[in-house]
């Protein structure tokens, strides 16, 4: 008991930890992606429908205010549908199917830390 | 038994615990408010209690508190970058509040406030307004160029700008509907299968088995939806800070 070794120096410990630690895995590889993919599936479906709903809703409101018959709603219906498809495209693009593939934020950000 | 019809939507009913009114405005303290207060108290206890020792080698509780901190810090770093650091308190609060709301909804006889679109839409709208303000604060009027896609012929802009604006306006709606619909659908499904279990007597073992699986699934959804809500907030923030 009396001959218990002194606690190791913290800096020394940190250095040994750094050595022992493997290279941090790159984000977006392996099975850790799976729950994210499921969340994305929810995301995509809602995205499509809600854009349409917002389009039609806004169109209806504009018609109500301007008294322009059904026309604003018809126009906004198509714009909403287009916006929905655009949203889905953007959402899927972030998954790695699009031009910028994963981490488009990562490529823009220069002053990133060691996580790079 | 059959007369007392099981209403799977009964669990979402708002009950006024302390009725109150300001003018025509109903400001009663409801069961939803109660569970929000409980969620905030639970988060506070979880974090403050976990960090009270501040041990160098964390115990289990402190480890969980640190884990949740690092989870969100990493999420912001990955999705927004270093400039997103200053929004950490907001995003962390948002995540913990939704997560605890979802998780406590899994306790029997509790109330899931995230299954109400008023609650989720209010949160999504705050995020939407906040992100827009951040965008204008960082870029001024230049933020409007967010709605003008690059490399598009001038004539097409007549079509593309309204679509981009609509797409932007969709954000709070899709953000709130996703969380609310997931929570509400899941809890309704649990209740429906639980009702089957009661009605079928001995054969109720089949829906009971499904319910066990569903409960596990609901825990996944509870976490996942809190995660998705937060990650999308980060993505929107990233859009506002780094235009295109």
Explain this structure to me?
The complex is a heterodimer of chains A (116) and B (244). Chain A has helices at 10-20, 33-66, 71-97, 104-108. By secondary structure, chain A is mostly helical. By secondary structure, chain B is mostly helical. Chain B has one domain (10-241). In chain B, the strands form two sheets. In chain B, strands 1-4 form a two-stranded antiparallel ribbon. In chain B, strands 2-3 form a two-stranded antiparallel ribbon. In chain B, strand 2 (21-22) and strand 3 form a beta hairpin. The radius of gyration of chain B is 22 Å and the shape is globular. Chains A and B meet through helix 2, helix 3 and helix 4 of A and helix 2, helix 5 and helix 6 of B.
SSE map:
The complex is a heterodimer of chains A (116) and B (244).
Chain A: H1 10-20, H2 33-66, H3 71-97, H4 104-108
Helix pairs in contact in A: 2-3
Chain B: E1 16-18, E2 21-22, E3 25-26, E4 29-30, H1 31-51, H2 60-79, H3 88-104, H4 117-139, H5 154-199, H6 205-241
Antiparallel strand pairs in B: 1-4, 2-3
Helix pairs in contact in B: 1-2, 1-3, 2-3, 3-6, 4-5, 4-6, 5-6
Describe the structure in brief.
The complex is a heterodimer of chains A (116) and B (244). Chain A is an all-alpha fold and 116 residues long. Chain A has helices spanning 10-20, 33-66, 71-97, 104-108.
Comma- or semicolon-separated keywords:
heterodimer; A: about 120 residues; mainly alpha; 4 helices; disordered C terminus; B: about 240 residues; two-stranded antiparallel sheet; 6 helices; about 65% helix; globular
**Uncertain runs of chain B with pLDDT below 50, 5 residues or more?**
none
Radius of gyration of chain B, rounded?
22 Å
User: Class by helix and strand content of chain B?
Assistant: mainly alpha
String of helices and strands of chain B: EEEEHHHHHH
The shape of chain B is globular
Helix content of chain A: 55-70%
Most extensive chain contact? A-B, 34 and 31 residues
Largest sheet of chain B: 2 strands, antiparallel
Number of helical segments of chain B?
Answer: 6
Strand fraction of chain B: under 5%
Mean pLDDT of chain A: 71
**Tally of strands of chain B:** 4
Low confidence ranges of chain A: 25-32, 98-116
Intertermini distance of chain A: 46 Å
Helix/strand-derived class of chain A? mainly alpha
The profile of the biggest β sheet of chain A is:
none
Strand tally of chain A: 0
Mean pLDDT of chain B: 89
Can you count the helices of chain A?
A: 4
């Amino acid at each position: 008991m009396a001959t218990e070794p002194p606690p190791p120096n913290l800096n020394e410990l940190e250095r040994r930890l750094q050595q022992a630690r493997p290279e941090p895995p790159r984000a977006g590889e392996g099975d850790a992606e799976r729950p994210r993919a499921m969340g994305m599936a929810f995301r995509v479906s809602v995205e499509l429908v809600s854009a349409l709903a917002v389009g039609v809703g806004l169109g209806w409101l504009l018609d109500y205010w301007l008294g322009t018959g059904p026309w604003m709603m018809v126009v906004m219906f198509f714009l909403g549908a287009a916006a929905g498809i655009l949203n889905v495209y953007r959402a899927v693009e972030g998954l790695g199917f699009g031009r910028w593939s994963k981490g488009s934020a990562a490529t823009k950000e220069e002053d990133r830390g060691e996580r790079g | 038994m059959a007369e007392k019809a099981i209403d799977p939507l009964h669990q979402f009913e708002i009950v006024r615990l302390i009725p109150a009114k300001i003018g025509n405005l109903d400001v009663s303290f409801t069961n939803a408010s109660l569970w929000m207060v409980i969620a905030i108290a639970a988060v506070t206890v979880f974090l403050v209690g976990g960090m009270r020792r501040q041990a160098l080698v964390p115990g289990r509780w402190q480890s969980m508190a640190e884990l949740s901190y690092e989870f969100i810090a990493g999420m912001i770093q990955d999705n927004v970058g270093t400039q997103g650091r200053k929004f950490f308190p907001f995003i962390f609060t948002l995540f913990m509040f939704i997560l605890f709301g979802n998780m406590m909804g899994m306790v029997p006889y509790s109330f899931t406030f995230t299954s109400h679109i008023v609650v989720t839409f209010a949160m999504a709208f705050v995020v939407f307004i906040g992100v827009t303000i951040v965008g204008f604060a960082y870029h001024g009027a230049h933020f409007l160029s967010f709605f003008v896609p690059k490399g598009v012929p001038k004539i097409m802009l007549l079509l593309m700008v309204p679509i981009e604006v609509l797409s932007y306006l969709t954000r709070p709606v899709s953000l709130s509907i996703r969380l609310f619909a997931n929570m509400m659908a899941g809890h309704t499904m649990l209740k429906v299968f639980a009702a089957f279990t009661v009605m079928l007597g001995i054969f109720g073992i089949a829906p009971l088995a499904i319910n066990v699986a569903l409960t596990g699934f609901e825990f996944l959804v509870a976490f996942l939806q809190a995660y998705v809500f937060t990650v999308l907030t980060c993505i929107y923030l990233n859009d506002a800070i780094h235009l295109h």
